[in-house]
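Weekly structure sync - notes
Attendees: PM, LS, DV (DV joined late)
Agenda: review two folding runs queued last week.

Item 1: First target. Sequence and structure tokens pasted below for the record.
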Amino acid sequence: MPQREHHTPGHALVVGGGTMGVGIIAMFLAGGWKVDVVSRSASTRDGLPAACGRALTALGKSADTSGLETYATVPEAAWKTIDIVVETVTEDLDLKRRLFAEMEALARPDAAITSNSSSFPISEIAKGLRTQGRMMGLHFFMPAHLIPLVEVVRSVHTDVAQAERVGAIMRALGKRPVQVKKDVIGFLGNRIQGALMREALWLIEEGVASPEDVDATVRLSFGFRYAAAGPIVQKEHSGWDTTCAVAKIIWPDLNNAKGPPPILQNNVDEGRIGFKTKRGFFEWDDQSIAEERARYERALRKCLEIFREEGIL
């Protein structure tokens, strides 16, 4: 059973105050850390205390954000006391590279510099920098304050002890870190999720099932089991001989497209991208969006309670 390690609260810097940033900031604040945040947007900086307060409340914590300081530029942060940096800016490789070069020059030699990028390998972001040993991916899943898993992604240059230290910090903050030992595109979660999404969209596009029934199938069959056991342990229950036999029949017929299917690309081209435009595969309005977000967070909090009861977190 994983034990939460004791770790004295420190000082974190989060670069970027968007949706992911808010969840990560709340995680640190909930653990008693001081948090500096850099955002170029004045409106984002002004809104961070309230947004982080709501995230803390969702965690069952006090909405106290007195440990939060905001800045417009990277050099303004309190670099002398910062123990760990989490970059959460938009998925722009050139921007991330410029930030990492700037932060390398400012950070203490022992401070970890990490990126929450969901797609770019850390080896590409940190390419050519002098202190790549303390640089790694630190990939959270949205909403970052509620989803317990975080991927610690190493490049060939990342110091293993440094990666394990960052993992220990995450565990002390109530997360479940996994060490991704090779810097593969998509890491663990997004590769597995991508394989599922490719097949799900193909089934919808081919008229095999409706979006509603695809969702129901995932949530109420094998997805339901995943709350109790991951795919590897689950097959220990059912038997790898059965899995092998089924793979010979089903796997050759699975979709293996190398890019987004037409149904996805067409939706994006038409602005059907979900809550942002109030339409995707489903139609939304302000009330239904608010209700769905509230339902979603309630369900996630209940799952957290179950995992904590089992001692997983």
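Item 2: Second target, run right after the first with the same settings.
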Amino acid sequence: MAMVKVKVCGVTRVEDARAAVAAGAAAIGVNFYARSPRCVNVETAQAIIATLPASVCGVGVFVNEARARVAEIAERVGLRAVQFHGEESPSDCAGWSLKVIKALRLRDRESVSAAAQYPVDFILLDAYVEGHPGGTGRAFTWEWAAACDRSRLILAGGLTADNVADAVRAVRPLAVDVASGVERQPGIKDAELMKRFIANAQTA
């Protein structure tokens, strides 16, 4: 079985991106949602993405953003993937030349069924928290993920170095996604936590 990949999301500093890559991250996420404590401007995102080796995917996170604005930022920053973390429709997620991740915030087991409607490369499953599109540190019931195609599943929601191995064993996703679970404070990653998280995810 292939080793699970790790996406470190909500990176706000170049040094955190470098530490994540050194620890084995396969993807780095930069957040463009203005209400997020992890939001970065285009210039900061450019610096973060520019530091990534070719083997690591730079992902931009957007919430209900205009298509033209997403395309403009993606081109300026040099993103290789976009992640839609709001109420975007299947048509909003279609027709991109980049890789596309659609995040679904799960209220219950039935919420997973929406995944089949999205013509995207990857589905990210996260916990539903009223008024917060992501990065909440809350988990959902992992068994709900069983209905999702594992070959395009990214598991998120409340993952930490202490529970990620259990999550990987329970769900067997393609990848796991972490933001708050490897932070000292919102947007400031901890290099040791990232090392532990990635090692535990990949040895599960």
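Discussion on item 2: The chain is about 25% helix and 20% strand.
Action: LS to circulate a short write-up before next sync.
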